[in-house]
Design goal:
By secondary structure, the protein is mainly α. The chain folds into two domains: 76 residues, Oxo-4-hydroxy-4-carboxy-5-ureidoimidazoline decarboxylase (UraD-like), CATH 1.10.3330; 73 residues, Oxo-4-hydroxy-4-carboxy-5-ureidoimidazoline decarboxylase (UraD-like), CATH 1.10.3330. Helix content is 66%, strand content 0%. The protein is built from nine helices and no strands. Helix 3 runs antiparallel to helix 9. The protein is globular, with a radius of gyration of 16 Å. InterPro entries: OHCU_decarboxylase, OHCU_decarboxylase-1, OHCU_decarboxylase_sf.
C-alpha cells in the first residue's frame, strides 16, 4: 500500500502537470487496490468532480501538438513519447505549418490546446480530428477535451500498472 505522498509522487503526472488530481483521488484509489482500472477510475472521478475552472487548468497544462514546446524539446517524457509515436516529431515544413495554424485557431476559439490521445493514430488521423473538432461548440469541445485527457491517463496508467478487466 502506497502512502499518500508516494501515490501523489507516482501518479501526480498522469493528468499533465496536475498533481492535485492524484491528491484528491488517493482515498478512493487506496481502498480499491492498485490496478490500472482502479487508479484510473479514482483519478477520473476526482477530475470530473473538480470545478470547471480546475478542469480547464488541466486542459491548459497540455502542450500544443507539434507546437513550440516540442520544437524546443521541452515536453514531458510522456508527451514526447506520445507525440513521437504518431509521427508528430517528423513533420514536413508544410505539415508543421498546418499544425501551427490549427493550434493557433483552436486556442483562440477555445482557450486551451487541442487534446487527443494519439496512441495508435498517425498524423493524418490527428489532422482530420483537429479539423472536425474545431467546428464544435465551446461546451462540446470542453467535454471532448476532458474525455481525451481521461483516455491519455488510461494509456499512461496501463504502462505503469498491472492490467485488469477494464477497457
Amino acid at each position: 500500500m502506497l502512502t499518500r505522498d508516494d501515490f501523489i509522487r507516482r501518479f501526480g503526472g498522469i493528468f499533465e502537470h496536475s498533481p492535485w488530481v492524484a491528491e484528491r483521488a488517493y482515498d478512493r484509489a487506496a481502498s480499491a487496490g492498485l490496478t490500472a482500472g482502479n487508479v484510473h477510475s479514482a483519478l477520473c472521478n476526482a477530475f470530473r468532480e473538480a470545478s470547471p475552472a480546475d478542469r480547464l487548468r488541466v486542459l491548459r497544462a497540455h502542450p500544443d501538438l507539434a507546437g513550440k514546446l516540442a520544437v524546443a524539446g521541452e515536453l514531458t517524457a510522456d508527451s514526447k513519447a506520445e507525440q513521437a509515436s504518431a509521427g508528430l516529431d517528423r513533420l514536413s515544413p508544410e505539415e508543421h505549418a498546418r499544425f501551427t495554424e490549427l493550434n493557433s485557431a483552436y486556442i483562440k476559439k477555445f482557450g486551451f490546446p487541442f487534446i487527443i490521445a494519439v496512441k495508435g493514430l498517425v498524423k493524418e488521423d490527428i489532422l482530420a480530428a483537429f479539423e472536425q473538432r474545431i467546428d464544435n461548440s465551446a461546451e462540446e469541445e470542453f467535454e471532448a477535451a476532458c474525455a481525451e485527457v481521461e483516455r491519455i491517463a488510461r494509456l499512461r496508467l496501463r504502462s505503469m500498472l498491472p492490467g485488469d478487466d477494464y477497457a
